[in-house]
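User: structure tokens for this one?
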Amino acid sequence: MNIDDFEIGSPEHAHALADCLEGQEEVLLGPSDIELCVKALRDHGRDRRTRPIGKISADEPITIDLLERCLDRLAIAMKRAPQGGEVYLPIFESFEADIEKMKATESTMARARRRYQAIDLSARPAS
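Assistant:
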């Protein structure tokens, strides 16, 4: 399947593009393909709903692991990009920031759970 076989912007084109990006074959993206990728990633970051990325299920929640896999794929695209990949820098930095925020949230939740477990509820007066 070739991404040029589909109308740019169509769902079929998007799926073919995702398949190409996910594969290990050499892929050179055209300007319209890069624009579609950037738009999809920005839309994803803006509305924070889960969406399929490559062959990842739409039902799969956004996790640190998922974002790490996205960063891996983005790094590959950056390395292969004819212009050197600078166009992807804002997206890469956004994913890194999202990962750090999620790690901080997980750390905070873990601290809250430890604090709750340390509370002796039986020693407190009933309210």
